[in-house]
Design a protein that fits this description.
The complex is a heterodimer of chains A (about 110) and B (about 120). Chain A is mostly beta strands. Helix content of chain A is about 0%, strand content about 50%. Chain A is globular and about 40 Å long. In chain B, the strands form three sheets. In chain B, strands 2, 5, 6, 10, 11 and 12 form a six-stranded mixed β-sheet that branches. A four-stranded antiparallel β-sheet of chain B has the order 3-9-8-7, with no helix packed on it. A two-stranded antiparallel ribbon of chain B has the order 1-4. The radius of gyration of chain B is 13 Å and the shape is globular. The chains are: A mainly beta (about 110), B mainly beta (about 120).
Chain lengths: ~110, ~120
């Protein structure tokens, strides 16, 4: 039962470095999401992809880019990391249909920018 | 824009006591509402969801929630908590397509269980 798998689980970056967070789901879901979680802030949506080939900005997209590589994979890229991007990142997926839509989350990626 | 408020940042409950976690939402249309739980160092697990129909929703682990449109609330309840219920709880509201465009989360309520 893999579900939603994200890599890496932990990463330390220097300011200005770039990196890509990888995410894959094996549930044949249409929609995929990237959230960030900060203390006292809950989860905030960075980007989402309602279907293969489409991506849309969420609440906090600045400083990030995404790629929906295929139906399974949705990556998040930090082109020039900043300390404000220190956070826990969660990838998620869902069927994307009107009824019964449940969003399933990965286990998170802890990113520290120094 | 939609929003979710969880008024209680921390709640402490004795083991075996009842629990109610509050959630208020702001959304123009019929909301799609969710409660998730997060254990330390883990991802989020869905407890229950409301899309339509019966306003009292049953979930996993003995939790239930009641949708009250007049109060814009979706409070989570459990009649008797267990030590394993200690976690962070998040209420969320979904946009179009039942949340297919992503969920808006509250800031969470940290539940502490006293022995």
């Amino acid at each position: 039962n893999a579900g939603v798998t994200q890599t890496p689980k932990f990463q330390v970056l220097k300011t200005g470095q770039s990196m890509t967070l990888q995410c894959a789901q094996d549930m044949n879901h249409n929609s995929m999401y990237w959230y960030r979680q900060d203390p006292g802030m809950g989860l905030r949506l960075i980007y989402y992809s309602a279907s293969e080939g489409t991506t849309d900005k969420g609440e906090v997209p600045n400083g990030y880019n995404v790629s929906r590589l295929n139906k399974r994979e949705f990556s998040l890229r930090l082109e020039s990391a900043a300390p404000s991007q220190t956070s826990v990142y969660f990838c998620a997926s869902s069927t994307g249909t009107d009824s019964g839509n449940t969003i399933y989350f990965g286990e998170g990626s802890w990113l520290t920018v120094v | 824009a939609q929003s979710v408020t969880q008024p209680d940042i921390h709640i402490t409950v004795s083991e075996g006591a009842s629990l109610e976690l509050r959630c208020n939402y702001s959304y123009g249309a019929t909301p799609y509402l969710f409660w998730y739980v997060q254990s330390p160092g883990q991802g989020l697990q869905l407890l229950l969801k409301y899309f339509s129909g019966d306003t009292l929703v049953q979930g996993i682990k003995g939790f239930e929630a009641e949708f009250k449109r007049s109060q814009s609330s979706f409070n989570l309840r459990k009649p008797s908590v267990h030590w394993s219920d200690a976690a962070e709880y998040f209420c969320a509201v979904g946009e179009g397509g039942g949340g297919a465009d992503g969920l808006t989360f509250g800031k969470g309520t940290h539940l502490i269980i006293q022995p």
